[in-house]
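Hi P.,

Sorry for the delay on this. The queue was packed all week, but I finally got your sequence through. Input first:
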Amino acid sequence: MKKEVFINESMGDTRIAIQEDNQLVEVYIEQEDKQRMVGNIYKGKVENVLPGMQAAFVDIGYDLNAFLPFSEIENNDYITEVEGGRGGRKKNHQSDNISVDLRTGQEIYVQVIKEPFAGKGPRVTTEVALPGRLLVLVPGENYIGISKKIWDKYERRRLKKIAQSLRQKDVGIIIRTVAEGKSEEHITNDFNMLIQNWEKMEQKGDQGEAPVIVYEDLETASSVVRDLLTPDVAKIIIDSKKLFRKTQRYLEETSPGLCDRLEYYKLKAPLFESFGIENEIEKLLRTKVWLKSGAYLIIEKTEAMVVVDVNSGRFVGKKLHEENSLKINLEAAREVARSLRLRDLSGLIVIDFIDMKKEENRKKVYHELRKELRKDRAKVAVAPITEFGLLEMTRQRIRLSLIDSMSDECPTCRGAGRIVSRDTLITRIDHWLRRYKSKYRDLRLRLELHPDNAHYMTKEKKHILRGLMWQNFVHLKIEENHDIFLDEFRFFRVKDNTDVTNELGLDKDQSSA
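Then the structure:
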């Protein structure tokens, strides 16, 4: 499989695109004013301990307190009881009833594992880990782990022997996939660098008063290079000279053999446009995804879950319905796995496949989806397809989805996707007028509307406008206002030009959709 990485730096953000066999599979966006928090380590201060929620809230200096579930507390010093037993590592205590020894005002080291989102603070863990190019250092632990993707037993044995010679007391080591085939010297250098970072972090923590950041992980572009630059990457193309030189220095220190795969993009045409990536990214904001067969997916992200609907669309099969459904569903399973990874959608995901009567066909689609999801670095859990054609799965959330990174909530519909109709708006205007005239005796009012609605009332609904005036014994002057939303209206008293829209105690939301 041919893998290529493209990094584009502009005034507003840095974007990283990853292609596999010339197909876009992952996109990362880091905006200048929204630096990522995942991987950062803080010396925080416990704000609240809530046994009923099995969680604590920790002040790390962010606007919102960090959320620390008891299940993410790795240090046995903080755990008093688990299911009636004493202490134990998290891997052994998946209980719903964990007692902890945490107090308000207590200082504690935590690492961010999920970005803040939708009014929720970042999620943190006490299991601090410092990632390097070849190793991950886990202070306070006493184990050696080796990536499951390293299959060769002799290589695993060699790497474990090196790790054992390096490991110090109360320091765990995880050997990453990219360490396969690397010399002992390279691995030792990576370990020494991590130990130095840990010592600097401890020193900063001792000197600083909580809350304080003691370790800041690499920015998105550098972390992608660190985590994804495996031997199967054919090239990395960067259009920023500063970022190119920084990446070049990093590779010279950690993986000199990969330096020749680094390219600086010099052309005037934008990098992503030259390689057709820009058009692909624009499509990611759409809900409809077309398949080659003519079928399509509808992908809707809600606050509660992600819903994917599979439709036959323009597909015209030449076989029986069951076989046609199987063909579409298999193609859809491959695209769903790619789209979830590409859009970085997470949480509970429900996929509505086209109905299939045969159990064996449902299993084929299920296994096809499982196979494609193995390419995803995020953790997933998949349930079999039900007799109604529904498949439920979960996907790990680490960062914001692409649609949340690239777009803002519509100020008109406020995330609903729809706004009130013109006739409903007229009904609301009618009700407002009735309430207003029951309290005030003004004879002349000015009604400001969006230009489309103003034209609708003055040209197409003249009789309704006349009716409003006669019924409420008031003269209405309609004016266009380009700053007003389609579902909004504003009333002004003509004699003193006062905005009276909220005179009845209505807020802006009640005078709009």
